Amino acid sequence: MAQNSLTHESDIILKTPTSVLRPWSAEDRISLAMHADNPNIAASMRDGFPSPYTLADADRFLTMATGDHPQILLAVTVDDQAIGGIGVHLLEDIYHRTAEIGYWLSEQYWGQRIITDAVRALIPVAFMNSEIIRIQAGIFSNNPGSMRVLEKNGFILEAVHKKAITKHGEVLDEHLYVLFRDDHAVESLDS
């Protein structure tokens, strides 16, 4: 079996109409902690995303994000300040040709197309630099804004996993969105 990998993010800088996606650096620790420390962000993230989000949490994340790993993890920046994050993570075993995309954005920047543009910029990079054939994202049922981001980027709703998520004691459905590596899906990103 061929080993699947993504381009290391130190080679990736993507300019979008609304932001710049670039590798994380140790200098991002204060802006990361400031923008990530929001229970409204954590409410739509997996439990591994801390809340409150401290400088120690930022340091732990930046040590991982700037180290050697088979993922793309980029800071979403405006005026060179990290205001969010986006990443593509390869799955393993029988899912080794599938990747998962995830993202978050400082609440003060919601509704400005920043994450929509970031997803649009990152998808072609993920497909071009790996053997993946699908990119997926599991979205909490109480996060329609994130669903819309994916839909604007050509993702389709593949499944709804009923009562699959428990977050802060609330049972939620998970909406699984997917984008396939086929000519139609890749071409639709350019339009």
Your description of this structure?
Helix content is 29%, strand content 32%. It is built from 6 helices and 8 strands. It has helices spanning 29-36, 39-42, 55-65, 114-128, 144-152, 183-190, and strands at 14-15, 20-23, 71-78, 81-90, 98-105, 134-140, 156-167, 170-180. An 8-stranded mixed beta sheet has the order 1-2-3-4-5-6-8-7, sandwiched between helices. β5, α4 (114-128) and β6 form a beta-alpha-beta unit. It starts with 13 loop residues before the first strand and ends with a helix.
Essential attributes:
29% helix, alpha+beta, eight-stranded mixed sheet, 191 residues, 32% strand, 6 helices, single chain, disordered C terminus
Low-confidence runs: 183-191
Largest sheet: 8 strands, mixed
Q: Helical element count?
A: 6
Query: Helix content range of the residues, please?
Result: 25-40%
Number of strands: 8
- Strand percentage lies at 25-35%
Q: Any idea what the shape is? A: globular
Main sheet strand line-up: 1-2-3-4-5-6-8-7
Order of helices and strands: EEHHHEEEHEHEEH
Protein structure class: alpha+beta
Overall average residue pLDDT: 91
Global Rg: 16 Å
Distance between the termini: 35 Å
